[in-house]
Specification:
It is a single chain. With 233 residues, this protein is an alpha+beta fold. It has a single domain (8-227), classed as 3-Layer(aba) Sandwich (Glutaredoxin). It is built from nine helices and eleven strands. The chain has a five-stranded mixed beta sheet. A hairpin with a 5-residue loop joins β10 and β11 (203-208). α1 (19-33) packs antiparallel against α4 and α4 (98-116) runs parallel beside α9 (218-227). The longest helix is centred in the middle third of the chain and has 19 residues, at 98-116. It is globular, with a radius of gyration of 17 Å.
């Protein structure tokens, strides 16, 4: 996918598309490029998945602590980061997922605003550490991309998801062999999800969706950080 994103013309001016616009545009283009039968199968699966309520942790729940290696293999503990300020925790499928890529890039753009509020950002992927490093290097990410190999942390947050058997042949045709990509032999991946966690370890905002093209916008997460005690600069 090209690094260059389209611009949107508004009253004679150009602006960068919002994350939601980028996701919708890519989703529509992806369906157009796919074989008709595959595109229809994906549409049907998205409709079915959209009706299934995710079972992730909710606002008010305590965020489970964890320690995971970052893209350099260094251990990162959530509790240590929360001792310094609020944390936005993202769960992404990995560098192979174009929707995740758009999200990670959008957060790179939004990172200074989060840091200005004293907040921190952690992205969690089921891919092994070298693959997380490749994603961070490719997209010039200045925040940790943590390897949750085996999906233990995703499971603790209630966002670990097993790909339906009916969708696996389609994923294989698209080149997304999850057991090989993640190196754990399983057809599991985290739901597209995000959590805003306060310094008291309470979740202030939780979002998860089984539809890959729907993500929590950084603006909404940053607003939740700003609303936390001590979150305003």
């Amino acid at each position: 996918m090209s690094q260059d994103l389209p611009t949107v013309r508004l009253h004679g001016l150009q602006r960068k598309p919002s994350l939601a616009e980028q996701l919708a545009s890519f989703h529509a283009a992806m369906l157009q490029r796919m074989a008709p039968d595959d595109a229809e199968a994906l549409r049907r699966s998205e409709l079915a998945l959209a009706d299934a309520a995710p079972g992730q942790l909710q606002a008010g729940d305590l965020a489970p602590d964890f320690t995971l290696p970052d893209q350099y293999g260094r251990p990162v503990r959530l509790a240590d980061r929360l001792a310094l300020g609020p944390v936005v925790l993202l769960f992404v499928k990995g560098g192979w997922c174009p929707f995740c890529t758009l999200l990670l890039r959008a957060w790179q753009d939004a990172l200074p605003r989060l840091h200005d509020l004293g907040g921190d950002l952690l992205a969690v992927s089921p891919q092994p550490t070298p693959a997380c490093g490749g994603v961070a290097e490719r997209d010039l990410l200045a925040y940790p991309v943590l390897s949750d190999h085996g999906g233990t942390v995703a499971g603790a947050y209630g966002v670990s998801w097993e790909l339906p058997v009916a969708l696996r042949p389609l994923y294989l045709r698209l080149g997304h062999n999850l057991p090989e990509i993640n190196g754990d032999g399983r057809w599991t991946a985290p739901l597209p999800s995000a959590f805003v966690i306060g310094t008291d370890h309470r979740i202030a905002l939780a979002h998860a969706d089984r539809v890959a093209a729907r993500r929590l916008d950084p603006d909404a997460a940053i607003a939740a950080v700003r609303a936390l005690d001590g979150g305003a600069a």
